């Protein structure tokens, strides 16, 4: 079978639209017709993989689609089912899955390599394997994935809305609710108001935060964050720190969530400056080379103020249980999804989409497949 996909050939390259061969689904695998794919900043980082992965690579880890065929032994989905993708497969058997931490499942170890769990590829070109990011590759018309990477959803849920539940919503929401453990009355600062940060705002609001301060250089994003629950918004981290002091009678924020598209040492320092004694700093953002960034932590402040620095992956969510939860909240009007979609693109417009993202024009862009 042939499929058209957006492929990265190497570091710093633009996305190339190529026709690839797609192998048939093997045991436990599923053929998916993709309907929507989210433009997440994590895919932009693929241009700078460094030690994290290999090329060529089909990008995309967020999205939704329809099951077209199943391999032997598949029992989680059937042909015709609508599904959302989990960028970390869940085996259900490793120590992490068995203790309710499927976001740490051992099956996710091959994310940057583009390999399936058996060490092989499902995309090929001229007989040579082409990787699929996170054992997916949602920037392709079709893909073959493990059933462990799928979450079945009701067929009356719009697939564009559902696509957001594949990464951006759970990562941001969970950063606030699960990782930062926002509690009623908390003062929260969120750095970044893009596809992750805006959902951290929604999560903090849901958890009962009394004040939510957003830091983002883009005015339109600050305004949108205010519509979804932010109580104050600024482009100046120092102003955010001053507000946190003012609102807390001098103690600082209870929780700070860092969701910036490109993480650097300066941002983490600014986040710590906002945080009060006993506070939590949840770090979601990545650098362009996640294996090669050093974050300077003021040891005295961390120790004497008893700060907790918490890494965040998938919002510490478990997709099989949390995606249905998000759908219920959306249906009840307690979670905004549709307005998060800023613009839709054809696959051939993917480089334009990422240019718009870099310019701060998007909350979330979607590739729409016909």
Automatic annotation (TrEMBL):
PANTHER family: ALCOHOL DEHYDROGENASE, ALCOHOL DEHYDROGENASE CLASS-3. This is alcohol dehydrogenase. It comes from Nocardia nova. It comes from the Bacteria. The keyword Metal-binding applies. Its EC number is 1.1.1.1. Residues 12-367 form the Enoyl reductase (ER) domain. Its cofactor is Zn(2+). GO terms for molecular function: alcohol dehydrogenase (NAD+) activity; S-(hydroxymethyl)glutathione dehydrogenase [NAD(P)+] activity; zinc ion binding. Belongs to the zinc-containing alcohol dehydrogenase family. The lineage of its organism: Bacteria, Bacillati, Actinomycetota, Actinomycetes, Mycobacteriales. Keywords: Metal-binding, NAD, Oxidoreductase, Zinc. One of its GO terms (biological process) is formaldehyde catabolic process. GO terms for cellular component: cytosol. The keyword NAD applies. It catalyses: a primary alcohol + NAD(+) = an aldehyde + NADH + H(+); a secondary alcohol + NAD(+) = a ketone + NADH + H(+).
């Amino acid at each position: 079978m042939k499929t058209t996909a957006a492929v990265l050939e190497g570091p710093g390259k633009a996305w190339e639209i190529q026709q690839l061969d797609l192998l048939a689904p093997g045991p436990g695998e599923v053929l998916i017709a993709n309907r929507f794919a989210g433009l997440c900043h994590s895919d932009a980082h693929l241009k700078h993989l460094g030690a994290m992965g290999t090329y060529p690579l089909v990008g995309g880890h967020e999205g939704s689609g329809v099951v077209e065929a199943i391999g032997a032994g598949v029992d989680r989905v059937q042909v015709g089912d609508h599904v959302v993708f989990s960028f970390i497969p869940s085996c259900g058997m490793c120590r992490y899955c068995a203790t309710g931490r499927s976001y740490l499942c051992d099956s996710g170890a091959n994310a940057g390599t583009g390999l399936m769990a058996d060490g092989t590829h499902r995309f090929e070109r001229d007989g040579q394997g082409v990787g699929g990011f996170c054992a997916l590759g949602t920037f392709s018309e079709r893909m073959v994935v493990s059933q462990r990477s799928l979450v079945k959803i009701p067929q009356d849920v719009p697939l564009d809305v559902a696509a957001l539940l594949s990464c951006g919503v759970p990562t941001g929401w969970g950063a606030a609710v699960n990782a930062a453990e926002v509690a009623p009355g908390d003062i929260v600062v969120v750095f970044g108001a893009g596809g992750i940060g805006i959902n951290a705002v929604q999560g903090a609001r849901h958890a009962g935060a009394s004040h939510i301060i957003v830091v983002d250089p883009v005015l339109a994003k600050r305004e949108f964050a205010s519509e979804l629950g932010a109580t104050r918004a600024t482009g100046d981290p120092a102003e955010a720190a001053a507000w946190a002091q003012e609102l807390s009678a001098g103690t600082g924020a209870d929780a700070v969530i860092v969701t910036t598209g490109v993480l650097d040492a300066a941002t983490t320092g600014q986040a710590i400056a906002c945080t009060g004694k006993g506070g939590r700093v949840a770090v979601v953002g990545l650098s362009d080379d996640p294996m090669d960034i050093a974050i300077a932590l003021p040891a005295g402040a961390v120790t004497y103020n008893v700060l907790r620095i918490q890494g965040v992956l998938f919002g510490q969510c478990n997709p099989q249980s949390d995606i249905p939860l998000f759908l219920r909240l959306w249906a009840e009007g307690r979670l905004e999804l549709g307005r998060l979609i800023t613009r839709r693109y054809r696959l051939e417009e993917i480089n334009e989409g990422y240019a718009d993202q870099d310019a701060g024009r998007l909350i979330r862009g979607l590739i729409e497949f016909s």
